Amino acid sequence: MAINHTKSTAFDPDSKKVQKDIADINSWRLKLFLLQKLPSAFWWGLKVKSFSPYRTVIEVPFNWRTQNPFRSIYFAALAGAGELSSGLMAGLIVRNSQKISMLVTNVNIDYVKKANSLTTFTCDEGIKIIEAIQQAIDTKKGVEVVLESRGVNKEGELVAKFGITWSFKVKGS
Asked: pTM here?
């Protein structure tokens, strides 16, 4: 998927650095990052199933580490997977752009069905992140964007839907 902008963007999804970051995502570096920066995600065993600047898929297992007393996945583990599915893309794009800060400013969650099996979260709104960062660079103002992440069970049924609001701002402006 190519970005169709008339002017150049601050983010090049085809750059060698971006491609290396994508290739490294399932290496020991991701596990180390999770252990250092998101230890709960490491503990829960969240797995990156696919990753690109446009779409990320995260799995949260149903096991003793993620289970609550009601025999379903603990809401925080679901929330962690939902946030990671958008945050991983945002982090990749920010890392490979100008100096941009990013922050979650709001989370809206709809729990639809009991999560009692492997649950897969998908966020395919990377283009919104790229456009928001470009707008922040162009205007020198903070820009917020709501990204949707949808969690489905093994049968493909919707379990939870997350609306995560990310704020992007050029550092120092």
From this structure: 0.86
